[in-house]
Design a protein that fits this description.
Layout lengths: L1 H14 L1 E4 L13 E5 L6 E2 L14 E7 L4 H13 L5 E4 L1 H6 L1 H9 L3 E4 L12 H20 L10 E2 L8 H9 L3 E3 L3 E2 L8 H15 L2 E6 L3 H16 L3 E7 L11
Helix pairs in contact: 2-8, 4-5, 7-8
Length: 260
């Protein structure tokens, strides 16, 4: 198992392009430390909360991810907090929210953040059967693509997907892998689906991060408590020597066909 893990990490490193992020105009900002271009064929699924492996991050490196948006009341505040600190993140969009708020989707992309897909309506895909689950995935991708570029497509231009509630199945994982779509889970949660104050959430998240030391963090840009907590969390990262890593997917597959 140790040998397999070492080989897998080496494979990701060999197929990933690492580059310094663009200089931030605010010299005292947290900034984005580096950008990793992830090849979904080399590393089809990551996140220790759901899978045996994660990204090869160094100690005190974090990846920020946000689920369930866009939602005008809170996503705009999250984007403002990230912009203040010159930080890039990955946003996993729900298709019906993207359809309702295409301008915010385009703002997310124009701000340099990565787009991931999170189904059409956030149904638990392990409970509804393969055919309906694939329709949820494809309809969500099409809505996200329409919001991004004005053209719906089942073949995504951005090759990241996250399962609602981490509820995957072997068949769905195999389908996404065959399409060259990377599944991003998480290494630690903010647990912001639970009601709490921004101060309580900050304490919970920073404690978990300090315990783990690094990882992919799952938050929700639809939560008011998260939007209020985020500026303080970014300041905490800066004060305590954490570095933000931004993920982008490798070039998309050319074919839109896939097995059902």
């Amino acid at each position: 198992m140790i040998m397999l893990r070492a080989v897998l990490v080496a494979l990701v490193a060999a197929t990933a392009t690492v580059a310094r992020a663009a200089d931030c105009p605010r010299k005292d900002a947290l900034g984005t430390s580096r950008v990793i271009t992830v090849d979904p064929q080399a590393f089809p699924r990551v996140g220790l909360k759901s899978f045996p492996q994660t990204l090869p991050l160094a100690d005190k490196e974090v990846v920020l991810t946000f689920d369930d948006g866009p939602f005008p009341a809170t996503t705009t505040k999250v984007l403002a907090a990230l912009a203040t600190e010159c930080v890039q993140a990955t946003f996993f969009l729900i298709g019906r929210n993207a359809e309702a708020n295409p301008a915010i989707v385009r703002t997310i992309a124009a701000s340099g953040h990565s787009i991931g897909h999170h189904t059409w309506s956030h149904r638990p895909l392990d409970k509804i059967g393969q055919q309906q689950a694939l329709e949820e995935i494809d309809r969500g991708i099409a809505a996200d693509e329409m919001a991004l570029s004005g053209a719906a497509a089942r073949a995504p231009s951005t090759l990241f997907f996250r399962f609602p509630g981490s509820a995957s199945t072997p068949a769905l994982l195999a389908n996404l892998q065959s399409r060259g779509i990377a599944v991003l889970g998480a290494d630690l949660w903010a647990s912001d689906w639970n009601p709490m104050t921004p101060e309580q959430q900050l304490q919970l998240l920073t404690q978990r991060l300090d315990d783990e030391g690094k990882g992919i963090i799952l938050l929700h840009d639809t939560k008011a408590q998260t939007a209020k907590m985020l500026p303080a969390f970014l300041q905490y990262l800066k004060r305590n020597g954490y570095k933000v890593v931004h993920l982008v997917a490798a070039r998309p597959i050319k074919s839109s066909s896939h097995d059902r």
